[in-house]
Amino acid sequence: MLQKMNQKNKLTTINKIANALLIFSAILFLFGSGYRLGQYRSQQNVSASTGISKTGVTTDMSLFWNVWNILEEKYVNETKLNKEKMVFGAIKGMVASLNDPYTYFMTPTENKESKDDLGGLYEGIGAQLGKKDDAIIIVSPLKGSPAEASGVLSGDAILAVNNKSTKGWTIGKAVNEIRGKRGTEVLLTLGRESGTIDLKIKRESIVIDPVELSYKTSKDCLSENCPQVAYIRIVQFGDQTNEKWDKVVSEVAQKWSAQSIRGLVLDVRGNPGGYLESAVYLASDFLKPNSVVVKQVYSKSRSKEYKVTRSGFLYDIPVAVLVDQGSASAAEILAGALKDYGKAQLVGEKTFGKGSVQEAMDLNQGTGLHVTVAKWVLPKGAWINGTGIVPDIKVDNSTTGTDTLTDVTDNQLQKAIETVIGS
């Protein structure tokens, strides 16, 4: 009798779990086709052994439930059978099977951190991460961040975090391991051309100012009345970028009109990107209305053009755009569009080469999904994914690996200033 009751209770528990899991479309559609924002909905009449995707593809789910039940019945450490983690882990595995580093599922904590990034506030070391050739790399350390102060460089490969190998990690996994409460430390093992180094970095509260404005002169000018250029550094294309950009551009436009500056240097070095729409918004200050800034190409030959829809303020100002291997995504869209229309010369190094578009979705229980939905091409039709954009004027910045560049030692900046003044 007791054995039958135990079996009955066990079956009841399994059924409850099954019912709870049915609200997750990702579990119902495991190994099925993907879905887009607004198309997420639960399927009520799907058995535990069969999943039916939105496109009508039927998938045998019996193996999934078989493994689930075996773990429940036989796994030695019951305290580790966390149902939520098991579900999230299953979804992560499904998404990871696409082998796309920019398509990934996020737990509630990871989803919040991702939003904090674009909102400009989080706790960590202040470095933007990417993935290249199956390695986690530093796209860029943020200006004034603990990462920059410790000597982290764009292009560094993160080989280990706190002595744990990063082999096989997703970007989300790496971010989760590196971040932590301010005041705590994290040990990074970094690989670069000069060899492998270990850096212990103290985490801090990171506040990102997305757009910075200052005025520069050439280091070779020793006069008291050296010609000035406006210098705008764009750190990322996030939630606050457009608003801050408008304030900065208003000042620059006034100074250009008053002939108190000779031009503009736009710096997107180390900028990992962000919102595509923000790149289009910024480009609109340099390009005429109705100009195509970027085109998204979806599956089945569908495409969408993003055009200038407003009047800009910087049509005639001479511009040089600073780029490097840390310039990615939206930064490449902005730089590439200005280059294609002959509105700016690009100075520096070849860009990162990220030509895909991700859609960020909020799912149940605070989780999220970033999914690659399209590729983007520049106005002249170039798809720069994996190849990057080659600058018009190639200039390298050589440092000892730990030196922080100044205006005087920044050869790329000085060349950009020279280019603008000589226009």
Sum up the structure in keywords.
alpha+beta; Pdz3 Domain; 3 domains; six-stranded mixed beta sheet
Distance between the termini: 92 Å
- Please, how many helices? 11
Instruction: Write out the strand line-up for the largest beta sheet, numbering strands in chain order.
Output: 12-13-14-17-18-21
Mean pLDDT: 84
Number of domains: 3
The CATH topology of the largest domain, please?
A: 2-enoyl-CoA Hydratase, Chain A, domain 1
Shape: globular
Q: Tell me, what is the CATH class of the largest domain?
A: Alpha Beta
Rg, alpha carbons: 25 Å
Report the CATH architecture of the largest domain. Answer: Alpha-Beta Complex
DSSP strand (E) fraction? 25-35%
Topology at a glance:
Elements: H1 2-21, H2 25-28, E1 50-52, E2 58-60, H3 62-74, H4 83-96, E3 104-106, H5 108-119, E4 121-124, E5 127-132, E6 135-141, H6 146-150, E7 157-161, E8 164-165, H7 171-178, E9 185-192, E10 195-202, E11 204-207, E12 211-216, E13 229-234, H8 241-257, E14 264-267, H9 276-283, E15 292-297, E16 303-307, E17 319-323, H10 330-340, E18 345-348, E19 356-362, E20 368-377, E21 393-394, H11 411-421
Parallel strand pairs: 13-14, 14-17, 17-18, 18-21
Antiparallel strand pairs: 1-2, 3-20, 4-11, 5-6, 7-8, 7-9, 9-10, 12-13, 15-16, 15-20, 19-20
